[in-house]
Every structure is written in structure tokens, then in C-alpha cells.
């Protein structure tokens, strides 16, 4: 009997020692929202959770290290990781993967099928490759004669296959980032889509897909399970089981108001959580009922003959808006004769993937779809996310009665930035804001009834709608934590700026969570409890 007790006690000490030796180091999304990247170390093994971009709009207002330098920092220990676990395909979670692989990362990339397809689509659309320092080349004749064909930009190439097709090429003097090359040559460059496609196909070989609730055995003492995060199609939380101890990374958690994804799955009891808290409100000033507010305002504006402009994030927000317009057409509250323009190429590429998936309704079965569906059943039953009369091109003017959707949502980049002076100056335009915007952005200034960043006054009516949010508030975070032991659970706040982190810590402690703190970038967090 003594031998059995001794053996059990020895095993307990071994398990505790293994977990105690494990650690997590945040390399991003700690005291800041973007740049998601976490290194999990267990003994001699290293694993990454996400490798995302730091966003310019966030970094510019926060001060500190320039965002460009932060995005270029890929430490050796990240490159040496055995595998990367990708929570979802937003660029602040996946945008540095091309750079990571270029620097030498050889590991597998684990994700859902939806996340894989969406991330690869973003890479093909020229995202992530501009950070890589290369010896670029371009056509001399295209630089001299054909810039107007690409909005004044010259196509920058880097692959051998493109090199064969350019008779008269110019080269950068040394390996350099595209941003620095533009400054040196005084030329605006645009990444070659064929080069991006070729590079993306190489990245694809490192992906391994998994379904929700599927357990992946990494080693004898380490397994990983994915659960639905309800944020965007394919978004997942990861539960790492190290011997008998569990560590949970939330990724980003959905608001619960999505007609695409519904609510997240509530995770099992774990020992340690790294939880997103992008917003610190107790409850969004929205609910499912705000869809009706959005619809009513849209109908009134169109009935008054106005042009409705909806600047929206190109990934998921644009698609949510398009689907809402389809539902309005289906129930007769929106005329199918009203033209809908979606003019962002990147948004349209993502929309095409959403539409392709929604159209698979006849191919879906309960058995094959379990754990791998992008959407709720209602979307598949519809067989489409698109309204009638949707058009995918830019036109000369937007003066007629129509709905116009453009990227970006804050009006500071892309098609939206170019539309600001013209659209905001018109009294017959109604602007509907469907995502978070900073107070310093064009959209933020217009919502405050201030002049836009170019200094011109706005005469358009503008209004914001929170129901399209992709992030959970405190009320939903409490629901997500409902299976946890709030006394024993150790919880770190991530994906949140310093102000919201401190607010969320206070709110969670007031709700009974005793061991809550904010994660710090570069801090080695020992997992021993």
C-alpha cells in the first residue's frame, strides 16, 4: 500500500513539475489590441499562438515603438517553434505569418478549414508580403508609361517566374522593405498578385486543418483542442492540456449578435486563461433589436432619395452588411431594384469565399458538417449571402439612389479614404458606420461633427450601429467564463489597451474573479499554479 501511495505521490510531483516548468510569453496583444503572438514553452518544446500585425491606427495614438519596427521583429525563439496555432484569419492574428516563414519557420500551422482558406485569400490579396525585405524588381517600361493603369502605382515583383516575363527590368540595390524602396525611388509600388499567389501556395503546404472539439495529440503529455469562438467564420479558442493541467487561449470572442456565427461555445473548466477584452463595457449599447434600427434608418434614407454609404471593414463586416441587405430583400423591406455597389477588391475576394461556402447547402450533411461549418444552418438554407443587384465595380459617380459599400471602415485607407471629401460634402448622402472607429480617424471626426482630416466640413448625415460588432462585452465574457472556478482560475487580459485592461480587471473582480491581471509584452508567465 505504501508503494502505491508513494507512486501516486511521485506521479503528482512529476505532473506538477512539468506544468510548473511550462511558460507563456506574450509578444503582442498585451496592453494593446493588435499584434497577437504568444509563445508557449513546455520543457524543450515551443509553440506559437498567432502571429499577427500591429495596426498603424492603434500604434500611432499609443506612442512608443514605431509600428513598422514592431511588425519586423520576429525573434529567434518564434522561428524555432514546432508549430503555430492560428485562432482566426484577421490580419492582427495572421498578418506576420509570411514574414515568419520567410525568416525560417518550418513548423505546421494548425487552424480550422475556414481560417486556412480565409488567411490564404488575404495573403493572395497582397497582405503580409510587403514587410519582407527583398531585392525587388519591376518593369522599366511599366514605370515610365503604364503607371496610370494601376492608379499610378508600379508593380513590384520578386519571383523567378515573373522575372522571365519582364524584358527590361530594374532592381533594388539591396534587400529592402517595399516602404523603404518607395521612399528611395519616389515611386508608389503595388505587390504583384502572381508573386503573392506563388508565395501563398508555399505557405499553404504548412497548414494542417482541424475541426471544432477535435483533440490533437502533439506529444505524450500535450494535447490541443479547438472550440468555436463565434468571432468570424472558422475562429477558434485553443485549449492546451499539459499532462492534467489546462491552458486556454481565447483568440477573439464574438458578440453573440452575428447572423453568421451565432454565439461561441462555452469552454470546459481550465486552470489558466488568456482572454481577450477588446471592449471594457458591461454591455454593448446594442442587441439583436438594433438590426431593426439599422434597417429602418436605411429604408428612410433610400425613400428620401439619398445615396447610402457604408464604409466597412473588408473582412466579415462587409459580408455581414451584404447578408443583412439580402435578408431585407427576402422579406420585402428593401427593393431589389436599388443597386448595391461593393467596390473594394479585397472585400470582394473574401465575399466570394463566403458566397462559395454558403452555396454548398446541398453538399452539407449533419455528419460531414459537424465541427467544420462556417455558418449557422440558416445561412446554408438560404444558399447565398448576396442581395440581388450587387455590383462589384467602381463607377464614375455615386449621385443616384443606391447603397455603396467600401473599405476601410474608419475612412482612413483604401476606397473609403478617397471617397471622404466627395461623399461627406453632400447633403443627400447618409453614412452608416458599422464598426469601431478611433476618435482621430475620418469617421470618428465626422461622428463628432468635426471637419475631416483634410479640413473640410461635412454636410452628410452620419450614424453608428454597434450590432455588427465582432467582439464580446463583459456580459458575454461572463457567459463564456460560466464553467470556470472564479476563485482558483488564473486569468490574464489580452487584446486590450491599457485603459480597457484596467477597467476589465475591476469589472471581473467585482463579479467574483479573484486572480485577474493584465498580460505584459515580454513578460515570462510561469504556468505553475
From TrEMBL:
Pfam families: Beta-Casp, Lactamase_B. This is Metallo-beta-lactamase domain-containing protein. The keyword Hydrolase applies. Residues 1-20 form the signal peptide. InterPro entries: Beta_Casp (IPR022712), MBL (IPR050698), Metallo-B-lactamas (IPR001279), RibonucZ/Hydroxyglut_hydro (IPR036866). Keywords: Hydrolase, Signal. Residues 318-446 form the Beta-Casp domain. Residues 34-306 form the Metallo-beta-lactamase domain. It comes from the Bacteria. SMART domains: Beta-Casp, Lactamase_B.
